[in-house]
Task: structure prediction
Amino acid sequence: MCSRIPSVKPDPRSLTLLLRLGSNTEGSGLTGAARWAARPDMRTQRTPLTAVARSYCTRKPTNNKPLFRQLFESASSTYTYLVADPDTKEAVLIDSVLETLSRDVKLIKQLGLRLKVAVNTHCHADHITSTGRMKKHLPGLKSAISKFSGASADILLSEGDKIAFGKHHLSVWETPGHTDGCLTFVLGDKSMAFTGDALLIRGCGRTDFQQGCPATLHNSVHQKIFSLPDLCRVYPAHDYEGQTVSTVGEERKFNPRFTKSREEFVDIMNNLNLPKPEKIDIAVPANLACGVHGL
Result:
């Protein structure tokens, strides 16, 4: 919105004071109109001083970065991510958890956001997604998951798809290996990547169930995720050590599994001997039905 500053005339009393002070204008600190008024050769003129009208504009600051929130569910050490366009208020939620449904819905409403899509990086085995239940609280919300996950959803995603929210978008990258339906979501400017269980901070998801394949996972990380810029921030689906974010460059350099050859990586993953996830028999059937099976 633009406005104009109106023309103004000086107060005669102020002008008289300037004339009295202006016997020596050099070094007096008077500038512009004050010097004009203080000059002896100009004092006899009656022409009033007039300020030149100026236009000024007030514009809402432009924000080129999305609104971002990283949320945590302690029982399964799951991160849920909320990204939104601050101007249009369109938003996307990644990897929601049933136990934190009320918290997430409350935050979305408090921030005045319109959640367009609730998406899962894969069909989780350690917690139940809140996506199906959330649709009842937020009209117009669509669920999304990989078309290779075997799960039902409003949107079935594949390589190259884009999830738009306002002027921003997430690119869909297929990164299988932990499961057949694992996806990584990359922000349009490649400054952020939501890697699910394919790449964790200094680790990765296991490969001993749900179509897991260590060789495939090694390829997905090295050929896909590690092709991103070094400074691209990595946001995983879980962390069990209290870490919140890494970068592609850090993981390429320091991840103890992906610094190994593919053969060494396969051997490591095939000999982890981890216990079966506690909730797998409940979580997987529920997540195949968008988190609402048997609830």
Remarks:
- The longest strand covers residues 67-73.
- The chain has a mean pLDDT of 86.
- The CA atoms of residues 160 and 172 lie 5 Å apart.
